[in-house]
Amino acid sequence: MTDLSKGRILVTGGAGFIGSALVWALNQRGIENILICDVLGRDEKWKNLVPLRFADYVESADLAGRLGKEIRAIFHLGACSSTTETDASYLIHNNFEYTKMLAHFALVNDCRFVYASSAATYGSLADRISESLPLEQLRPLNMYGYSKHLFDCYAQRAGILDRITGLKYFNVFGPNEYHKGDMRSVVHKAFGEIRATGKVSLFKSYRPEYPDGGQQRDFLYVKDAVAATLFLAEQIDGGGLFNIGSGQPNTWINLVTPIFSGEPKIEFIDMPEHLRSKYQYFTCADVSKLRAAGFTQPLTPLVDAVSDYVKNYLAPGKHLGD
Questions:
Q1: Chain segment 170-214, per-residue pLDDT in tens
Q2: Could you tell me if residue 253 is inside a domain?
Q3: 129, 123 in Cβ contact below 8 A?
Q4: Residues classed as catalytic
């Protein structure tokens, strides 16, 4: 077990979506001895930091020189998360080599290490996806997924995977994703479209077993994602890979309906040709390993999660902690 109130906590990607939500959750517990690492760049994710309480901030290029024995836990959530990034060398350096450096620092210094892998490592697999699948059988569909998969495989070959914890987040949505551009959730995009036009656009289905808007995903509210992350960090010493999802598939129609204040108005549009062969019609995480580890907290029902996000954050323009 790890007591997160003892020693400094490093959160990489701490200004980003899940990272800033994790810092917010730590603040809710009164924990502020946190070193945030990120690349603030030119977008507006710095706004996620404004309401948060933390001890210090460092840019990722300078982190290696700031690592010290006072750090007792590392949440490595920083990465290039764009599934459309094509610079493979950049992804290898940023997502693979950087993770190796931090993992070995943590192991040498007896420091708890929790890192973000990704559900993208599963590739085209869809139904009840389990962490027990042999890593060598996985076939990621993009370079982002492969960069994450590469570290999982490295950790297994190096014999360190059972001493660290890798998190395969599924379709996480919620406050503090505002800076993510095209990588924002459909909830965020739909809210803006509905506010501007009164309707929302969803892709048509090109498989007869799925009606338009009936394609399904495993959606998870960010508050539940960080609750599971903190539980595993505190209660499990290592454990390898864990799926972080709801374990329940929901349709796109289910997702966007609570955004409307009245009768939903949905327009089904053609899917671009280049996406049709890669599009996944169903994804669902097998979360039995997470539950077996003792995480019994009920997850926020989808309707309640979307409503909380819209009413308390999107509509008033607030961040976590405001």
A1: 999 999 999 999 889 999 999 999 999 999 999 999 999 999 999
A2: no
A3: no
A4: 144, 180
